Amino acid sequence: MRPLTRAEEDIMHLLWQRENARVAELIVDMPEPKPAYNTVSTIIRILEDKGFVGHEKAGRGFKYFALVDKSTYQKASMKKMVNSYYEGSFKNMVSFFVKEKNMSAKDLESILKDIDKTED
């Protein structure tokens, strides 16, 4: 799966929320300062080229929709990050967050409880 830029990810998040939208509808959902219509349209075309977005005719324009679901993208992104920064080890990643004080013992206990639930 090809990586996305921050701007591309922002648009994908909007499409995952809406399921489908015209460019103008996406712009309405974007924070201020709103990007230009042509900017969003260009990013949508790039996402289409990357295989993340499809479109369908809607009146005189198009409605766009995600071809890659959020869960699939999350899994691929996390795998890439763990492989790139933590030598492919989720243990190393968690250890990093604990050392940086971004995760407490209470957080770890909660994660272990969640793991126990999924193993049942």
Fold and architecture overview:
The chain has two domains: 6-66, Orthogonal Bundle (Arc Repressor Mutant, subunit A); 70-119, no CATH class. The protein has helices at residues 6-18, 23-29, 37-49, 70-85, 90-99, 105-119; strands spanning 20-21, 53-58, 61-66. A hairpin with a 2-residue loop joins strand 2 (53-58) and strand 3. The longest helix is centred in the middle third of the chain and has 16 residues, at 70-85. The model has no long low-confidence stretch (mean pLDDT 94). 62% of the residues lie in helices and 12% in strands. The chain is built from six helices and three strands, in the order H-E-H-H-E-E-H-H-H. Helix 2 packs across helix 3 (37-49). The chain has a three-stranded antiparallel sheet. The radius of gyration is 19 Å and the shape is elongated. It has 120 residues and is mainly α. This is Penicillinase transcriptional repressor BlaI. Keywords: DNA-binding, Transcription, Transcription regulation.
